[in-house]
Each structure stands twice: as structure tokens, then as C-alpha cells.
Amino acid sequence: MKMRGLFSTLLVVLVALMIVTSEAGKNKKEKSKNGKGGGDCTEWRFGTCVANNGDCGVGIREGTCNEQTKKVKCKVPCNWKKDFGADCKYKFGKWGECDVATSKKSRSGTLHKALYNVDCQQTISVSKPCTTKVKNKPKGKKGKGKGN
Q1: Tens place of pLDDT per residue across the chain (148 aa)
Q2: CB atoms within 10 A of CB 80
Q3: Residue 76: exposed, middle, or buried by beta-carbon count in 10 A (0-12, 13-18, 19+)?
Q4: What's the CA gap between 27 and 137, in Å, rounded?
Q5: Contacts with 147 (C-beta within 8 Å, 6 or more apart), sequence order
Q6: Which of 125, 116, 135, 60 shows the shortest CA–CA distance to 96?
Q7: What does pTM read for this prediction?
Q8: Would the CA dihedral through 82, 86, 88, 90 be positive or negative?
């Protein structure tokens, strides 16, 4: 008889725990749907990322929706991607042949994804200096697998 009472108590505690965690999960989903302090806004528009120091590195992006504003952390690239930003993702083709007149080679990319509803160019072209090094054939590993 004592076991039945203990089992009933455990069952009640388990059901109560499931209800509490279920409610907590619902609250988390509602919060994540609305964003950080986003209220009922669904159409957030974000500006470009502005670096905290200099022209690249960690920075802040400001977003607006209706009459609400919020700031989110972001990063401005410090390399050639700085020309079109970190928010525009492109799918690039292969590098072209070296242009002897400019000593550069180029390739183009088409827009793959625009983050934060940023306006991006549909196609871009990037270039880099031609390499003068000739790649050597890989050599076998020394001292491994050979009987000396």
C-alpha cells in the first residue's frame, strides 16, 4: 500500500514538472519569435554595419520597425570582401586567366543571399594580383614506409 502512495505522488510530481517545462518552452518560443524587445514587429529593416574603430572589425547595426529601434552586433570584413560587405553572400565562379596588361585576374559572383534585408548588387566582379609562383609537384613523405 505504501508503494502505491509513493508511486502516485511521483506520478503527480512528474506530470506537474512536465506542465511547468511545457509552459516555459512556450514562453521561450514567443520571445524568440518577437526578437529582443521586438514587440509585434515582423518587418525589421537594418542599416549597414558601422565599425566601432576604423573602417573594419566589430561594430553595430541599427534596425527599425514601425517606431521601434534596436542595435545588434556585427562585423565589417577587413579584406577584399569589404567592397561589398559581409551581409551580401555571393556564389563565385572560377578565377579567369591573368590579364598581362594589369597583372590581375578576376572572377564574377551572383547574389546567393542578402542578410538583414540589405540591398545588394545582383552580380559583382572582383580581382586580385596574378601569382608568379609555379606550384611544385608534391613530394613523397621522407622516411615513412621505406626500409632504410
Answers
A1: 565 665 666 566 655 556 655 555 544 434 433 444 446 778 888 888 888 988 888 999 998 898 899 999 988 888 766 667 778 889 999 999 999 999 999 999 999 998 887 788 899 998 889 987 666 666 666 555 555 4
A2: 10
A3: buried
A4: 60
A5: none
A6: 125
A7: 0.50
A8: positive
One-letter amino acid of 108: S
How many residues would you count in the chain? 148
Which residue do the cell numbers 506537474 mark? 16
Q: Which residues fall within 8 angstroms of residue 130, CB to CB, at 6 or more apart?
A: 98, 99, 103, 104, 105
State the sign of the Cα–Cα–Cα–Cα dihedral 135, 138, 143, 147.
negative
At 28, list the grid cell. Answer: 521561450
Q: Which of 129, 121, 122, 123 minimizes the C-alpha distance to 95?
A: 129
Phi, then psi, of 7 in degrees rounded to 5: -65, -45
Q: Following CA atoms 73, 77, 78, 79 in sequence, which dihedral angle do they give, to the nearest 10 degrees?
A: 170
d(CA 31, CA 19): 19
Q: What is the DSSP letter of 138?
A: P
